[in-house]
Amino acid sequence: SQKIEQNSEALNIQEGKTATLTCNYTNYSPAYLQWYRQDPGRGPVFLLLIRENEKEKRKERLKVTFDTTLKQSLFHITASQPADSATYLCALGGNDYKLSFGAGTTVTVRA
Amino acid sequence: SQTIHQWPATLVQPVGSPLSLECTVEGTSNPNLYWYRQAAGRGLQLLFYSVGIGQISSEVPQNLSASRPQDRQFILSSKKLLLSDSGFYLCASYRLNTEAFFGQGTRLTVV
């Protein structure tokens, strides 16, 4: 069955540093991969989408890579700020109606 | 862009009582609609999805059911709640290869 794994449950970093989150998947060939931000008690909010034929995508301080050979996506937050503290979810989509999510990585940025 | 309305935000219900959670969508027509449940520290588990009025697909056998009486309305129900039904319920609207829009969620506690 499909499996989506995100790296360690929590990531604590110093303000200004780069946070790097990992999303690995097995038994799946996604057409695209998405990253979402979720704040406590709220619904996830879309950040970035990267397609299987794309290697890298950027949006402001965010960068996503997608390696379909390694079955892995990396999500980077550069020049991190305390306001970036949240849980980040990766999601995989294919050519069906479903979007499958990982458990998320909680990022805490210390001032 | 779309807006997903979900209510109530929190709900405490006794075991054995019925449940009805409603989700409505603004800003789009003929959306694909989804119910997810999120347990603490866990990923989003897809419960039901619907690609049109009256069409419901169930992902996991459980104590819950879903209905779609109107194009932009999606309802999650139970006749008799179990303790294991506690969780954070999220309604989402999603189209293939695009971002998903989520409601603010309902925190259900079954006591």
Structural summary, described in words:
The complex is a heterodimer of chains A (111) and B (111). Chain A is mainly β. Helix content of chain A is 0%, strand content 58%. In chain A, strands 2, 4, 5, 9, 10 and 11 form a six-stranded mixed beta sheet that branches. In chain A, strands 1-3-8-7-6 form a five-stranded antiparallel beta sheet, with no helix packed on it. The N and C termini of chain A lie far apart (41 Å). The model of chain A has no long low-confidence stretch (mean pLDDT 93). Chain B is globular and about 35 Å long. At the A-B interface, β4, β5, β9 and β10 of A face β4, β5, β9 and β10 of B.
Helix/strand order of chain B: EEEEEEEEEEE
Classification by helices and strands of chain B? mainly beta
The main β sheet of chain A shows up as:
6 strands, mixed
Largest interface: A-B, 26 and 29 residues
Helix content of chain A: under 10%
Task: Reconstruct the topology from this structure.
The complex is a heterodimer of chains A (111) and B (111).
Chain A lengths: L2 E4 L3 E5 L4 E8 L5 E7 L6 E7 L4 E4 L2 E6 L4 E6 L8 E8 L5 E3 L3 E6 L1
Parallel strand pairs in A: 2-11
Antiparallel strand pairs in A: 1-3, 3-8, 4-5, 4-9, 6-7, 7-8, 9-10, 9-11
Chain B lengths: L2 E5 L2 E4 L5 E8 L5 E7 L5 E9 L2 E4 L6 E6 L2 E6 L8 E8 L5 E3 L3 E5 L1
Parallel strand pairs in B: 2-11
Antiparallel strand pairs in B: 1-3, 3-8, 4-5, 4-9, 5-6, 7-8, 9-10, 9-11
Key features?
heterodimer, A: 111 residues, mainly beta, 6-stranded mixed sheet, 5-stranded antiparallel sheet, 11 strands, globular, B: 111 residues, 4-stranded antiparallel sheet
